[in-house]
Structures are given as structure tokens and as C-alpha cells.
Amino acid sequence: xxxxxxxxxxxxxxxxxxxxxxxxxxxxxxxxxxxxxxxxxxxxxxxxxxxxxxxxxxxxxxxxxxxxxxxxxxxxxxxxxxxxxxxxxxxxxxxxxxxxxxxxxxxxxxxxxxxxxxxxxxxxxxxxxxxxxxxxxxxxxxxxxxxxxxxxxxxxxxxxxxxxxxxxxxxxxxxxxxxxxxxxxxxxxxxxxxxxxxxxxxxxxxxxxxxxxxxxxxxxxxxxxxxxxxxxxxxxxxxxxxxxxxxxxxxxxxxxxxxxxxxxxxxxxxxxxxxxxxxxxxxxxxxxxxxxxxxxxxxxxxxxxxxxxxxxxxxxxxxxxxxxxxxxxxxxxxxxxxxxxxxx
Length: 344
Hints:
This protein is of the alpha/beta class and 344 residues long. 22% of the residues lie in helices and 27% in strands. It contains nine helices and 17 strands. The chain has helices spanning 50-53, 140-147, 164-167, 190-198, 212-215, 237-248, 258-267, 306-315, 317-329, and strands spanning 31-35, 42-46, 59-63, 65-67, 71-76, 81-89, 95-100, 110-113, 117-124, 129-136, 175-178, 202-208, 231-235, 253-256, 276-280, 295-299, 340-343. Strand 6 and strand 7 (95-100) form a beta hairpin. The chain starts with 30 loop residues before the first strand and ends with a strand.
């Protein structure tokens, strides 16, 4: 059964100059667009206002995955350059990755990184992924440490700079594995987290290692035919318990970012949450009945992306389109290093 919405329903126009190329000097100085689903109202604050939105006893769930330096530039056997964006390791020691130029890099082709290591492409998989086998004197992790770059998204039209290693990372990141930042968390500072705790908000964690599935383009006009590539998540016992207690007492569960939403809705699909580690292919688009998440902190997302579809499912497509139009009119900064939105 197809979706009642088409891909074109999730399109919108924006001035390219609104795409943030650098983060603000102060993480918490970002603007905050607050969207109220019950009234349809839209108002403007700064991110420092976030603690006032939450009530004592609410639960704030954040994604603590760390961004790895997953983008590598190497040399092919013919001397031409190649780019590898590592996704994640497999149990057999191979890695899945995106490569460029994809048309040239077929099974059997090799890419070398300095004098330390090389990879051989051993399999071509769906979604543009390649399976890579490593050889050489250094581990993939050490190769990333020596040669890897911060994998800034393609709409940031500059090379990564040393400051990005810290700024394209949340202050609470602790589990290596993402190839893109869970960007809603980039606005948090230790001071804002402390203010939330003083207010009586319980802060708890999940992890979802952001991979190609999050940003793979939707290509089918019937969005229900899009397949999300699997991404690894963990729901710790203390987080599952905290959320179940909050729901039992009618407290609000706040998700920091779309990746956190996908963990909570994956684990909560059958009702009560249970600790788990696994892989999720959950693709959320309208209409969708949210079973766990009661409020969402998020960034502004690209048109026709799975992330924009998720927030459209949460807020309603017409309201989220109106909110984006308001943000663009008010010259909000867009996308990964841009401003934030709270949907309550």
C-alpha cells in the first residue's frame, strides 16, 4: 500500500545563502523556532530558552554517538584520486563504505592511503555501498586517525578545518560510530544541560550511529517505496526504565534529534520499552502514530529528505511547511550548523 503523500509534497525552496557554512561561536546562541502542534502557533526564541520549555519530571533523551573521521582520500592503482566515506565495520573485519567515483570503483579495484594501508573492493551492495577489505600495517581506526577528515555534509562548501573536530561533535558524544553529526545536539552546552538538571529534568541517553541510511536520498515518487539502510542503535536499561516511568506518570519524553526519535520509536513499537542493541531500518513519514516521543528538538532539514519527512510526520505536513516558510522569511540559518526548532 502506497503513501497518500508524494515526494514532491516534501519539497520547498530556500535561498542558498541561508545554509550555514560555519557554526556560531557560541553553541547556544542559535535561534529557536518553537512550533506548538496543539494551537499551530509559531514563535521565536534562542536556544538558551530550552530549559524553560521542559517541566520537572520530563525526560530528555539524547544521542551520544560520536562522529568518526570517516572521510579518506586515497590513490587508485592508475594514480587517480578516490574518496572513501567509511560507514561501519562488519563482523568479518571488512567495512562498508561509500566511494567516489562510484562508477570507476568496481570489485577488485584497490585504493591506497599513504604507505600504510590499502583497501580492496570485494562487493558492491545496494544503496551505493561497497564492502572493503583492508591490508597494510595500520588498523582502519589508526588510518582514520592519521588520514581521516571530519565528514562535513556536501552542502558545506569548504574543506574541514581543525575547529570542526570539536564543533561537528556534541558536548556529550562518547560512543564512536557516526559519519554525520546528530545535529540537534550541537546546540547544547554543559551550562544548558546543568540548567535542565536543576529544573528537575531527567537527562538520559541512547545511541544511533548515523550512517548512509539517514541521508540517502529518496528517489521514488511514492515515498513508501523508499528503503532505509540499517543503522546500529543501543537502548540502555536505565533509559528504557526512565522513559517507562515518565510515560506512566504522563510526563513528556523529549527527543533530541531525528536519530533519537528513530531509536525510541523502533524500541517502543510494541508498547513497553526494553533494553536492546540492534539495527533499525525504521523510516518515519506521514501519517505515522508516535508511540514514545512527545516533543522534539531538531534542526532544519533539506527538502525531500527522510529527516524532513520525519518532522512532517510529527508536526503535520502543513504546519511544518508553514514553520519552514516562517524560518526562511526570518532568515534562520539552515541545516547542520544552522538554527534549531522545538516541536511541542
